[in-house]
Amino acid sequence: MYSQEKSSKSTDQFFDQYVQIGGFPFLKHFSHEPDATSQYLMDLYNSVLIKDVMKRNQFRDIDLLERILLYVIAHVGETFSANAISKYFKSEGRKVAPETVLNQLKGCEEAFLFHRVPRMDLIGKQIIQVNEKYYIADHGIRQAVYGNNTRDLQRILENMIYMEMLRRGYKVFVGRVGNREVDFVCEKAGRRLYLQVSYLLASKETVEREFGALLAIEDNFPKYVLSMDRFDFSRQGIIHHYIPDFLLNDQI
Known about the structure:
By secondary structure, this protein is an alpha/beta fold. It has one domain (5-248). Helices cover 46% and strands 20% of the residues. It has helices spanning 5-21, 34-57, 62-74, 82-91, 98-110, 139-145, 153-167, 204-215, 243-248, and strands at residues 114-121, 126-136, 171-177, 180-188, 191-197, 223-227, 239-242. The chain is globular, with a radius of gyration of 19 Å. The chain starts with a helix and ends with a helix.
């Protein structure tokens, strides 16, 4: 895939760094020193939390807000509902109404800390109003607040692809076709494309899941599977891309 080993190694190093610390431009001033980078990201997170979420919305219980945010940060890329979070708190011995959870999450959305992604039924052509997904504005904040970006690489890859498609000007949905999920349905200026994101296509079952969901869509819009595999898995009109290459190619 790369003509020179040096170029490949450099790209891999930059990508690994991006997984860990995210993409805030100001981080270059810290020469990517881990402690300074982490402190900057934590300070940024706390500033948004206090000034843009707590004060703006007059929330009084900062402990509750932090616990809700930690739940969402830990579960980026998962479908869940306010009821699910409410039940989680109940299991922890704390009563929190689903409406309270929704209000707190809305405040975080308005502060651009999270992005809520609606689900689209690709057969019924309608937006599904339950069990949406949330992605964090920059996954470097997740590393600073929660850690485990490297361990949770599937979540991080989805998060960075979602944010990249927003940067490219697309409106993004989570798709559903029958009982299969399509990670992202991206629309811009009458154009649509579909994306599946997987860490590795390491088994026949994984290949079937990722490609099968796209094959179930009966239209001719472009369809892509993105993964960390260097081998080209493209088949049946579905294009496979190595994720760092996809991120560097903003023509898609």
